[in-house]
Predict the 3D structure of the following.
Amino acid sequence: MNHDSVFSLDEALSRVDHDRETFDMMVELFIEHGPKDLAEAKATLGAQDAAGLTRSSHRLKGAILQFCAPAALHACKTLEETAKAGNLQHAEALYVTLEQELLRLLNALRHERDKGLAA
């Protein structure tokens, strides 16, 4: 998989002054916490809790932002804005898009991590 279509390694590294150790730590934290934040978003969506969905998607957006992942970021921002407006009518479809993009990002980050471990 070409991670360039999912996130920008160069931009993400530039955010941490090209410190690979810091980047790798961020990846590990995101791999651990990203799915938990996504599960929280799903739970708040299921409860039709617009405020909770706004908070959980906002937190996830901040984490995604570190990796310069435009599709995942866009999906998360759209879900957050929709929840903030209290319009949950289309939130389920937006959540599905976010879930797909987050999985793509997680897979790309795991691939990048594994490449670094093999070196």
